[in-house]
Amino acid sequence: MMIIYLANLTSVGIFGMVLSAAFCNILWTRKKLLILAGGMAAMLMLQGIVYFYTDVEFVERVYPIITHIPLTILLCVLNNNKQCLWQAISVLTSYLCCQIRRWLVLAAVAVFSGDAMMQNIMELCITLPMLFLILRFVAPSVRSVSGYKISVQCLFGAVPLLYYGFDYLTRVYTNLLLEGGQVAVEFMPFVCSLSYLAFVAYSSAEERKRSRLEQTQEILNLQVGQAVREIEVLRNSQQKTSTYRHDLRHHMQYLSSCIENGRLEQAQGYIHEICSEIEANKVTVFCENEAMNLIFSSFAGRVEDYGISIKIRAGILSDISVLESDLCVLLSNALENALHACQKRKEKGLSADIEVSAYEERGKLFLQITNSCDADITFDHEVPITSDPGHGLCIRSICAIVERYSGIYSFFVENGRFYLRVVL
């Protein structure tokens, strides 16, 4: 009987130690495996020595000191990590898994009216299959949690920690659980309920955050695609204008032929047709940078179509450190916001105008866009917010791009004008 009991005690010790190591995200080498095996043998030997000179009850009382704490330290050393939070959580989780093994056997013993001998034998028999199942199907998922942020790791380790404390306080160090104390009996159901509610709340918050990020990313991708397409269209228009200039000699020859043959009306109509095509594809030169120039030219035409005056002063070189796609999204969103604000004023019969100033100095891009605005602009942490559908995303896009380049942005209203200033 005693031999079977000691064998069972040794098997559960190995079961917990192996699981603790499997739950840790350690890059195992032959050397580390040998160190782990040696450490496990030393801890089991220490348990045997303590048991030989004392008794089973004393071994259970000092088990955290002679096994759990040394195992946590050993795993920290093997992981080359001074932060032992996850190693401690792994040990606590493996302790919790040991209770699954124990409860299944107790349930079987109760059904078949077995005795202590049957319990020890069944625990010995179930140890290896359960260890294999947990290592195969559970351990990889548990290890993945070690890569999450600290708050998630703590949330994951809360239940094993509470159970560990509960088990030792009510079963090993006292007899509160066996005596049927109501507080002790109801504690773990309380922990399960609280943990479930915390898990639901956390999962729901993470899902909402993920959904918002996916929605924002999708809209940003659409905006980038649209901006790139717009630049391509404008670039094609500029190429057409260049083609017209190249073909000017041929046009002149045709006009000369018309004039020589007295077909003045035909020549006049041809001139108007060419001028209209060139004007439709005109790209005003605001600066040397092609992307900024095309965006400014496109928006200048749109703004003037709404009867809104716009002044653009830009001195940007052709090569800057900002990616063309980021520049498109930044300028397009900023100018769209300015145009939207001016449109609202025009609908009220008020004057509206936009001013843009951009220049480069010491490798930094300085951009200021001001526009007429109403006085009812709401700010949250110095960033404007709006309830208009879609327009809050423009502000978030601007902030995200500036932060990506470790730049500076500021939004403010002064003397009836809205100011956006960006340094990249």
Describe this structure in words.
With 424 residues, this protein is α+β, with helices and mostly antiparallel strands. The protein has a domain at 2-180. It is 70% helix and 11% strand. The chain contains 13 helices and seven strands. The chain has helices at 2-23, 30-53, 56-78, 85-111, 116-137, 139-145, 150-172, 182-246, 248-260, 264-280, 290-305, 324-347, 391-404; strands at residues 309-315, 353-361, 364-372, 378-380, 383-385, 408-414, 417-423. β6 (408-414) and β7 (417-423) form a beta hairpin. The longest helix has 65 residues, at 182-246. The mean pLDDT is 84.
Strand adjacency order, main sheet: 1-2-3-7-6
> Which residue ranges are poorly predicted, with pLDDT under 50 across at least 5 consecutive positions?
none
Q: Provide the β-strand percentage band.
A: 5-15%
Largest sheet: 5 strands, mixed
The secondary-structure element order is: HHHHHHHHHHHEHEEEEHEE
Query: What is the percent of helical residues?
Result: over 70%
The class by helix and strand makeup works out as alpha+beta
Mean pLDDT, to the nearest integer, reads 84
Rg, please? 37 Å
Distance between the termini: 77 Å
Overall morphology: elongated
Total strands: 7
Q: Quickly count the helices.
A: 13
